[in-house]
Input
Amino acid sequence: MRLRLLAWFAAGLAFLMMVLSPLAALADDTTEPAEPSSTTTATEEPDDQAGDGETVEPPDGPYITVVLQDSANDDAPIVGVTLTVTAEDGTEVGSAVTNDEGRVIIETPERGAYEVELDQDTLPDGTELSDPDDASITIQVRFDGPNPGLFPIGVEEVVAVPFADRLVTALTSGVKFGLIVALAALGLSLIFGTTGLTNFAHGELITFGAVMTYVANRGFGLPVILSGVLAVVVSALFGWVQERGLWRPLRRRGTGLIAMMIVSIGLGLLLRNSFQYSIGSARQSLSQYVSQGRRDYGFISLADKELAIIGIALVTITISCVLLMKTRLGKAMRAVSDNPALSASSGMKVDSVIGAVWILGTALTGLAGVLLAINSQVNFLMGFKLLLLVFAAVTLGGLGTIWGALFGSMIIGIMVEVGPLFGVPSSIKEVGALVVLILVLLIRPQGILGRRERIG
Output
């Protein structure tokens, strides 16, 4: 029987790899969508053209490329502008004139720092640099191939946004992020509260939901909404396969929780590397809802997809809490969480209840991955990066408690987004939330709500 279950689990993983493998080629051809910009940029591989409209092959070695566009005129290319490249010792490396696309390509003899000077006298009438004093820039040539430069042209002066407006925006983003974390934390709390397992592969379950959405959308051409629904269903099925093929046999063998935690670390590594092989290391985009303008709703502004993310998360969390509080399944989950042995002696099918917990928990976690993919696109590390915050949310609210997971997630989400307004660098904005976690646990080790408020 054990061998049969392990065979089923292995077959499930093999099927997963078979489905994901064809996406490796697709990932190479799918690029991350460019963020809208109002400045001159050169982020793409240049077309094989140089100044004066002449067609040339890009050099094999390092070279500098600059694209001049007028941001004040719908990013129209600026033609006929002369740019000169000078080495650090003052030696002129070369010069070129922007072609019909506003692009120049200037080869450099080696890597290093070079100064690029724009001849303002060659700018068309009515076009000027945003700052006339910035007619030269320094470019660090570090790579063989294109090394882009930037000259802001036609960029209007940025008006400082009042602190109150920035605070409202950060709080709104914090609520949205907190709700996504809450879905994943709810799944983690259900599994931990029922089985006692600290699942370090939980982050990969978030990524699994996102990757399945990407598979259905990009691989099979389904709309994003339908892809997300299918991803949640497949995530629930994957949770059931894990329970039947891996965790249940380990429990029946009497495997300790520490050993099972180590198994979850190995499973997380397996899934993470499988995702990297399948979709690549670059961020991948869905076919819809990549970039949307915001609408004003009173004193807050939200894109349609952000409003949908908040609404879907709230409805799902509400339904889950009602399910856990009012239904027989919810009562059974609470009973198994409190005392599995007593529940079994009372005639309750403990393994079936735990199986239902895994199905519900992975479905909620997969939904978190779907919403995160719609919000910020797909990357093989997205769940792994979120794992620490999910653990922090569950611990902050109280281990094994549903309300605690929700409450802790909202605190974590808001702290992460609001922190940069109070001096926390954006690159480490998660640190503020973790500091709050430490301070709370020093005062109340059982978490904010503790065990008394548990509903599941």
